[in-house]
Every structure is written in C-alpha cells, then in structure tokens.
Design brief:
By secondary structure, the protein is an alpha/beta fold. It has 2 domains: about 60 residues, DNA polymerase, domain 1 (Orthogonal Bundle), CATH 1.10.150.530; about 290 residues, Aldolase class I (TIM Barrel, Alpha-Beta Barrel), CATH 3.20.20.70. It contains 11 helices and 11 strands. The strands form 2 sheets. The chain has a 9-stranded mixed beta sheet with strand order 1-2-3-4-7-8-9-10-11, with helices on one face. A two-stranded antiparallel sheet has the order 5-6. Helix 6 runs parallel beside helix 8 and helix 9 runs parallel beside helix 10. The longest helix is centred in the middle third of the chain and has 15 residues. The radius of gyration is 22 Å and the shape is elongated.
Length: about 375
C-alpha cells in the first residue's frame, strides 16, 4: 500500500495581502486582531526586501519567525536555464512544476531603465501564424503567485532588493511573454495587485502593460480591474489577413476589436493604447497597408510599435526589408503617430518577440523527431 505524499507547506512568497493575512490567522501565527499588522510586516520583508528566510525578518518576534518557518516556506521556482544574449538580454526558463515551464525575458535599456517580459500561461491556444509560442499547445494557466515569481526571480538575478526608485534596472513589466493574458485575467489581475503594491515591488500600474491578441469580452474588465496600460497585437488592417495571422479575429473581428479599444477605461492622450504590428515581408508591409492602418485607428490615442519579424526554426514568414519598415514608419509619423521600430533584442537566444517556447516542449519535439526519423 503506497503512502500518500505529504503536502508541501504553503508558500507565502506570491500571496496577496488578503491571502497572507488569512494564512497567518489559519495557521495560528497571528491573532485576528493582529493579523493585519503582522501581514504588513511579512509582506514588506517578502516584497520590499526579497527575503527567502524567515530568520531575516528582524522586526518580527523570534518565536513568531520560528512558527512561520514550521508552517510555511518562502521559495522561488527552479531556474532550469539562464541565457544572456550578446546585447544584454537575459532569458530565464523557469520550472514551476514537472513539465510546467515558462520563459521570462529581461530587456535592458528600454523605457526608463529596463522591461521584464512575463508569461501568463505555459503555451498558448491562439496559434498566431508568426509566433513560435503558438506552436506549443497550452499546458495550463500560471497562477498569480507564479506570475509574481517571475518578477522575483529577475530581481534576485539583477540584485534589486530592497526596492528602490533610484537606479532601478527593472522599471517596467510587460505581459507579452507566453500565453494570452486575458484568458487568465483573474490571475493576471491578482499578480498585478502584488507587483504594483507601493510597500513591496512597487512598479506603478502606469508602467505595467498587458498585451492581448483581441479577447474583446475581457478588455473592459482588464481596464476596470487593473488600470494597466493596454497593448493590442494587431498585425493586419483587414479581416481576411488578420483571420490568417491572428485566428482569434475570426471570433472577434476588427470592428469589434476597435470598438473595445475605443471603450477601454482611462484611454486618453496620457494613457495611449499601443498597437503592436509585426512586419512581414510582402504580407502587411506596403505603403497601402500603412495608410489602411491610419484609417483603422483614426481618433484613437495611440502609438504603434513596428516589430521586425523575429525568425524561428521553420517559420513561414520573412522579415520585411529595412527600407520597407522605414517607409511604413514614415507614413505613420507624418500622420502624427509615434511609431518606433523595435530593435530586435535577444535573437541569438530566441528571446525576442514571438520566439518564446518552453524548453521542455522543444525537447519533447526533438525526441519525437528522433523516434519518427528513419534509422541512419
């Protein structure tokens, strides 16, 4: 008769304030009357100082620290692989559980300091034609704690504890990694609450951007629940092409998507939407496409990120020629839109936009190829 596995102690590192407070009371570590105060102390040690050892919580009574250490843990997920590109981009393959891995990317020298691209799912269901992640089936949603852990892992590596607004390298968070954030909105919203808390990691909601491929029914809820900046993976200006590039368009076509963008809570010249537009040679990169884009977004406070296509093995597209991208950008700029051309970063480690894919999935695919290949 096999013995049931002993459940792991709860990990406090990714809980919300309310969850942390409740956990301390239920474990008998804090009374109901003192739970808010005690949770505030522990919260600050976890999210401001980044500690992973209860013994370091010097303003908490020694016996309370010991009680917490008996009942809880403060652990990070396993870093299965760390890669650093020639241009300073860092990519971590983070293993949350056996077979549950996601990639997280730090891109230095963007915005005020640097941006962390976090994943919201392991794999993806959207199957966007130009995206490597889309070739991996969905494994599962990431929990709020697992999303927060990506920020914690990055700050561990960058040496950015305790939180400081001075000389911070990681100043922005973008939900542009693996997965569709609006298919995991509850966990994304909860993680965003933790990341933006002023007594912890303290990254302003104005510096957190959530990207969607167009999950129209959840877009208003995203704005109302999180106050995050909105990015939309657009990539085409007519339904026939977007149906092929971004298949969710078949469910929520451009007219519905643009109506949802215009209704996004807080949209203004100070809180512009970002349209992401990957440049595909001979597909969507003509001057006529640029003029169609201007017509589509007319009246929307926006900027357009032009993204040179980042190749991946067996990709069906090529990147537009530099002169085609420049000509496209010039048309948008003459119309008054900021249209930066995103410089490809981390291509040599497959860390650029659209290139992320779990290493476990790559290895499984490699093993399948070996099994199905004829013997040498």
């Amino acid at each position: 008769m096999t013995q049931a596995a002993t459940p792991s102690p709860p990990n406090l590192a990714g809980l919300t304030r309310a969850e942390l407070q409740r956990a301390l009371v239920e474990a008998g570590v804090a009374s109901t009357e003192r739970a808010r105060m005690r949770a505030g102390q522990v919260w600050r040690w976890i999210h401001h100082y980044g500690v992973t050892d209860f013994a370091r919580m010097s303003d908490v009574a020694k016996e309370t620290r010991a009680a917490m250490a008996e009942r809880f843990v403060l652990v990070r997920p396993q870093i299965a692989e760390r890669q650093e590109s020639r241009d300073g981009v860092i990519k971590w393959l983070i293993r949350f559980a056996p077979g549950v891995e996601a990639e997280t990317v730090f891109i230095p020298d963007v915005a005020r300091s640097g941006a962390l691209c976090v994943s919201s799912q392991v794999g993806c269901t959207l199957n966007c034609a130009f995206c490597h992640t889309g070739t991996q089936g969905l494994v599962r949603n990431l929990t709020a704690a697992e999303i927060v852990a990506q920020v914690q892992v990055a700050r561990d590596d960058l040496g950015e504890w305790p939180t400081s607004n001075e000389n911070r390298r990681l100043s922005n968070v973008v939900f542009m990694g693996m997965g569709e954030p609006l298919y995991n909105l509850d966990n994304v919203a909860q993680a965003l609450d933790v990341i933006s808390d002023n007594e912890g990691i303290a990254i302003s909601r104005r510096k957190i951007t959530v990207s969607t491929s167009g999950v129209v029914p959840q877009m208003r809820a995203l704005g109302e629940r999180t106050g995050a900046m909105l990015a939309v993976s657009l990539h085409a200006t007519r339904d026939e092409l977007r149906d092929a590039l971004v298949p969710i368009n078949r469910r929520y076509p451009l007219a519905e998507l643009m109506a949802a963008v215009r209704a996004y809570p807080g949209l203004s010249n100070a809180r512009r939407v970002t349209f992401e537009y990957v440049m595909l040679k001979g597909v969507n990169d003509s001057p006529a496409d640029a003029r169609a884009l201007l017509k589509l977004i007319a009246g929307i406070p926006a900027k357009i990120n032009l993204i040179p296509f980042n190749p991946w093995p067996a990709a069906p597209y090529e990147c537009s020629a530099p002169e085609a991208i420049e000509a496209f950008a010039a048309i948008l700029k003459r119309a008054g839109y900021a249209s930066p051309i995103r410089r490809p970063r981390g291509r040599d480690i497959l860390a650029a936009c659209g290139q992320l894919k779990s290493e476990s999935e790559k290895l499984r695919a490699s093993a399948r190829r070996r099994l199905t290949s004829p013997a040498a």
